[in-house]
Amino acid sequence: MINRCATAAFLLLICLVVSSAPAQEGGQQQPLSRIAFGSCANQDLPQPIWFSIVNYQPHLFLMIGDNIYADTRDLAVMRAKYGQLAANHGFRKLRQTCPVLAVWDDHDYGENDAGAEYPLKVESQQIFNDFFGLPADSPRRQRPGVYGSYVIGPEGKRVQVILLDTRYFRSPLKRLPAEQRNGGGPYTANPDASTTMLGEAQWAWLEEQLKTPAEVRIIASSIQVVPNEHGWEMWGNFPHERQRLFELISETGARGAIVISGDRHLGEISQIAPADSGVPYPLYDVTSSSLNQPEGGTEDEVNRFRLGENYRDVNFGTITIDWQADDPTIELEIRNLRGDAVRQESTTLAELRPQA
Fold it and tell me: Cα separations (Å) of 136 from 11, 130, 141?
């Protein structure tokens, strides 16, 4: 059991980080060792999983998309659906327990599978920023898109949280003819190098973030980065952008990168080797979805990068860092409704560095 006084002190310190607004969104000296995350929370359905997340006692919770299901061009409806989430007892308890950082996916952005073409993205961003309480002087309020970065912890134990916006700037998806789907999703890779996932401003920003000193980097993408075969939304829809991300991690010398993702209404842990990515160490993609409406994909859905099996019930993800070990260990887990680990992989800081 974590000491409650220590937890309260940590909560106070990290709140200063979340509410601050210098270039890196602030920093503080308490090591971050328990991170929880999840996606896809339908406000019209029960959400008992919040209590299991609270029981895990995270230092930080990351909401990585589909935080509500707005699916509307009526801003009053969007605000009302955020209001439903705000009123949920379990979610209120979570916000009292630890700081919450968030980025959106399509349904809270405004429309299913939408990208840059969504006509109310400026207004939707304002509602998002207001709901998650971003300070008036936060960099995330000063630019288009909801991307942001936070560095937490003292030198030698720094965790950088990078929240990517995969909606505001994204080019249209390329559809696959129905007769070619073979049970998979409706999209296929777009070879047009002029298309984008992040937009040039966000790419330039990301390059600077990856140069920021940190021991562990959690890159939150609302859609999967490593899996690229299922035909639903993923970075593989824009293979040149996926490869650009891998190359940027390598070229900036960014150590300790771990991707977390959502969207798919299933949980799984994927890993891509250096030979397949160009990243000079194994890159994990921990997918956690859905918080309350599971059973996406299929049990045998193709993913050559998956470690073990996927998990198609309600789930949330956790990252636990043991900073006391000589080579700090990192546990990557998918947890079920009760909070039990159902999928797990372990790594170390040394393994997330360029290999000799």
Answer: 21, 9, 7
Beta carbons within 10 angstroms of residue 1's beta carbon: 5
- On whether the CB atoms of residues 238 and 196 are closer than 8 A, the answer is yes
What is the per-residue pLDDT for 4?
A: 42
- Burial of 333: CB neighbours in 10 Å, binned 0-12, 13-18, 19+: buried
Residue with tokens 């439903």: 84
Q: Which amino acid is at 79?
A: R
> Any residues with CB less than 8 A from the CB of 266 and at least 6 apart, and which?
287, 289, 290, 294, 295, 296, 297, 301, 310, 311, 312
For the stretch 267-287, pLDDT in tens is 999 999 999 999 999 999 999
- Three-state helix/strand/coil letters over 281-292: CCEEEEECCCCC
Number of CB atoms found within 10 A of residue 33's CB: 21
CA angle 87, 264, 221 (to 5 degrees): 80
Query: Please, are residues 112 and 106 in contact by the beta-carbon 8 Å criterion?
Result: yes
